[in-house]
Amino acid sequence: MSALYRSNAKEIDYEEVTVLDKPMLFTCLRVDRATVPKGMYCYEVRHDDEGRGDPCEIANWVMVNHWGTLISNQPIALKKNAASSNAYREIEPEKDWNYEGVDSTLQEYMEKHPPKKERNRGDAR
Predict the structure, then answer these.
(1) First and final CA of the chain: distance in angstroms?
(2) Most buried by CB count within 10 Å: which residue of 34, 53, 104, 121?
(3) Residue 117's pLDDT is what?
């Protein structure tokens, strides 16, 4: 995964989304986790296999069907995968995902939604 280009979290624009009833930021880019501020959580999103462009899974990392990256001020509960070092959570796009129609920077999001607690690099909860 290190060969993939990743963007600096602090230098890109995001879309505000509500995922699992929580305000978050979304970008279609892959984000360099080392640039995510302390106290913030970073996840990748996978889209459906049918190619409809529906987000269907949130994970620590996504190799195939990468839809984008979520940044949150609080952790998302993920289920550990025994076969890999990854953890994931399936979502229903109609119920669990909503685009708010607002663009935001990471700084603006953090001002509105300060981190809830310290970030743990494991991210799987």
Answers:
(1) 22
(2) 104
(3) 63
